[in-house]
Amino acid sequence: MPTPIHDDDDDLDATPKGVARRITKVAEIIQRANARLERIRTSFVDPPDPDKPAVVAALNSVLSEAGRATTMANELLTRTR
Fold first, then answer.
1. What is the pTM of this model?
2. Can you say whether the dihedral through the CA atoms of 24, 41, 46, 4 is positive or negative?
3. What pLDDT, in 10s, does the model give residues 21-67?
4. Exposure string for 30-60, b = 16+ CB within 10 A, e = fewer
């Protein structure tokens, strides 16, 4: 059974240790998402037309969110230099 995402962190801890802990949680969530996509990939078949738009929309959503996460991570990395 997948590990549920518990976002019980209040995001108010602005100490370096608190920020690192929260960013580590984000990385763990992304790792779980990648593992889930890998499991989907192993059994993926081209969906029939009635289902295709929903599958395409879901994949585009993954791409969009992954791109946003990458952009934000790069911005934060730039600010730490």
1. 0.80
2. negative
3. 999 999 999 999 999 999 999 999 988 899 999 999 999 999 999 99
4. eeeeeeeeeeeeeeeeeeeeeeeeeeeeeee
